[in-house]
Design brief:
This protein has 18 helices and five strands. By secondary structure, the chain is mostly helical. The radius of gyration is 31 Å and the shape is globular. This is Tyrosine-type recombinase/integrase.
Length: 366
């Protein structure tokens, strides 16, 4: 079932034992299969994924795998170790954002899981590899803050008031772009509280589908400003019409929207998806529980905890700083201790005010 040449009898016998154990344990992988180049496994993997996952997911996997260098793709899949995967991810961080490389790692893990199932390799060389920190992270855009968002909206209003409302609404609701595109007027509710029901998603160029996650079908409350914008969008439309549409009344398209608001000029350091992160961070800073924020986002609470851990820690840091400021003595010029001038203009001893200050008696408290 398998053959291999060794320089010593001991190594050959060890190989024979390993193959027999794998054969009896159901984990046998032919050495011939393990010699299959990674590039061929990638092609078979993408062909198998077609029809099993959403077209958008398949395109993402294809794009992520296209980023792999030719030298890595030429490797036999059975020869790739965890050290090789770590080196690959580290090299990719030299030219790509940390978030981009993290997505490539996710696709790689899915590829290796499929390869194990199809008996191309006995183990998943990606699963045990954690993302390296990478120096590129420091160059990624700063978080979207209220001040930055206000500047973005002001710049976009001068180019497209209609487009600026879309940006503002996304920052208030945390919806994905694909979910906004698929919203209908009938998804807007006024009672028992203003909200939108997120029932579907439609990425640019793809057919409508269920929202991204199992928790995707959800109801998202609308603050007064978001409700005001939504009511203005819905005016004069039927229940089946798109709630947010283009200036000409058509379904939103990301390319046209970014062009209308000059996104690369008005918000060069951020993406449309950053508006979702802005909304989530705002909710958490205002004390909304993690489970509630996760429900509004359509995400797992564990994901919210992991992604927004830095936001959750801000309240503790602020309280600690408040306590430190309250307990430390002041050294400002207005509260400097009094001094006496000695002979010749020299500064004398500092006057220390004790607990007997203001009392009369022989002891001065100097």
């Amino acid at each position: 079932m398998a053959d291999k040449t060794f320089t010593t009898r001991r190594a050959a016998e060890a190989f024979e034992r390993q193959q027999k154990e794998a054969l009896h344990g159901g984990g046998f992988v032919s050495p011939q299969q393990q010699r299959t180049p990674v590039s061929e496994v990638v092609t078979a993997f993408l062909d198998a994924r077609s029809g099993q996952v959403a077209p958008h997911t398949l395109r993402t996997d294809r794009d992520n795998l296209a980023a792999l260098p030719g030298k890595f793709l030429a490797r036999p899949i059975g020869s790739v170790t965890e050290a090789d995967v770590l080196a690959l991810l580290t090299d990719l961080l030299g030219s790509r954002a940390h978030s981009t490389v993290a997505r490539i790692r996710t696709t790689l893990s899915a590829l290796w899981s499929w390869a194990v199932r199809e008996r191309f390799t006995p183990t998943n060389a990606v699963r045990g590899v954690r993302m390296p920190s990478g120096a590129v992270q420091a160059h990624e855009g700063a978080p979207l803050t209220p001040l930055i968002l206000a500047a973005v909206l002001d710049a976009q209003r001068s180019r497209s008031p209609h487009g600026a409302l879309i940006t503002e609404w996304l920052s208030l609701t945390g919806l994905r772009w694909s979910e906004l595109r698929a919203l209908r007027v009938g998804d807007l509710q006024d009672v028992p509280f203003p909200a939108v029901r997120v029932l579907r998603a439609a990425s640019d160029g793809y057919a409508e589908k269920s929202p991204k996650t199992a928790r995707g079908r959800r109801t998202v409350p609308l603050v007064s400003r978001a409700h005001e914008i939504a009511k203005a969008w819905a005016a004069g439309k039927g229940p089946g019409d798109y709630l947010a549409s283009s200036a000409t009344g058509l379904q939103l398209r990301g390319t046209y929207f970014r062009r209308a608001v000059a996104w690369t000029t008005t918000s060069p350091d951020h993406t449309i998806h950053d508006l979702r992160h802005y909304a989530a961070s705002t909710w958490l800073r205002q004390g909304i529980p993690i489970n509630q924020v996760a429900a509004w986002l359509g995400d797992d609470p564990r994901t919210v905890l992991r992604v927004y851990a830095h936001v959750l820690g801000e309240a503790q840091d602020m309280e600690a700083l408040r306590r430190l400021n309250a307990s430390l003595p002041s050294h400002s010029p207005d509260t400097a201790p009094e001094t006496e001038s000695g002979e010749g203009g020299k500064v004398g001893r500092t006057r220390k005010m004790g607990s007997d200050q203001g009392k009369t008696g022989g002891d001065g408290g100097i």
